[in-house]
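Task card 7
Instruction: Convert sequence to C-alpha cells.
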Amino acid sequence: MFRIKTNDLQTITAGQFTPIAPISDIVPESTCWTASCCVWRLIQLRSIGKRLVAVLAVAGLLQCTPVYADAKGTAPEQDAYAKRRVLYDEISIVTRIPWYRLAAVDQYERTITKARPKTREQLGQYISVFMTDSDWAGVLNPDSGDETPASIRWFKGLGVDGDGDGRAIRTNDTDLLYSVANRFMQYGTEEDDFSIGLWQYYHNTRAVQRIRQFARIYETFGKLDLFEHAFPVPIGTNYSYRGTWGTRRSWGGYRIHEGTDIFANHGVPVRSTCYGIIEVKGWNPYGGWRLGIRDLNNYYHYYAHLSGYDKTLAVGSIVKPGQVVGWVGSSGYGKPGTSGKFPPHLHYGIYRDRGLVEWSFDPYPMLKQWERDERRRMRKK
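Output:
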C-alpha cells in the first residue's frame, strides 16, 4: 500500500489519475488518504423540493477513516473524533455550512442528551443530534417509524435521506446530521443566516448562544479533541483546598456555597482549566472581580475573588488549559473595588447547562483529578 502524494483530488480510472479539484477544497490538509481509500462513491443527498448530488472521495468513509495529525488521547476516543470529523466534512461539502458549525450543533446536542438522559437517547453511533419520532416522520404521519423520504416530506417531517440509500433512518449518522443541516441550509450559509436557522430550529436563545460559542472554539483550534484540563493554579505554588461545596454562607442572605475555595497567596496566577470562551467578566457583589468560561461540555467555569485579569482578555476571548486569566485576590462582598474582607483565595465553581437552566455541582472531585493528571504529566517531562 502506498500513499498518494498529490495536490489534486483524483479519480482512479484505467490506472490513470484525472484531476477533479484541489484536495484542500474537499478535505482538511491534515488528512492522509491511502490508495485503498481513493475509491469514488456517488452519494445522493435529497432535500425538500430538490435533489443534491455530490461526488465525494470516500470508500465507505466510516470504514476508511483519515488520520488527523493532532490526534491525542485513547485510540477509541480518537477513532470517534476522526469519524465525526469525516461526517462533518462530508456534509459541509454539500451544504456549504462550515464543519465547525456542524460540530458545534452536534456537540451541543451531545451535552443536552448527557444532561437529560431520561428524556433523550443517543440515536446515532457517532452523531448526537436528537429528534423525536414525530419530528422525524411528521406530526400527522400515522407511521411514526416512517423511513420513506417521500412520505416524510408529505407529512412535513424533518427526516432526510443523507447517504443515498433511499431511506431516511433516524438512527443513521449521515441521515441525522444531514437532516438538521438541511434545516439550517434553508436560511443561508453566512454566520448571521446560520444564527437565524438555529433560532428557527431551537426557539431558544441559550441554544443559539451555546452553539455559536462552540463553533468559535472549534474554528480557533481546528480540531475536535479539546477536552484536556489543567488545575486552576500552578502546581508547585503554595495552595490548599478541601471540599466545601454545599456548606452554609450568610453574606447577602442564607445560601449554600456553590464551589471550592482554593487558598493561595495574593497574586498567584489563576489559569483556565479548559478550552473555552470567556462568557462573563466583571464585578459581582458576591464574587468580586470574577470571570466565567464556557467549555465544550457546556460547563460554566466560575472564577471569583480575583485581584485582576489578564488585560488581553475580554468577553468572547478563546482560552486554553493552563492559560493565565487572572490572579488570586480577596475582592467581593460589597460595591465595586471592595477587598480584604476574607483571606485571599480563588472561589472555583462549575455549573452545568441543561438547556433552559443551569445548576451547580461539586467541582472538588474534578479538581483532584486534574491535579493528579497534571502532576503525572509533569513527571513525564
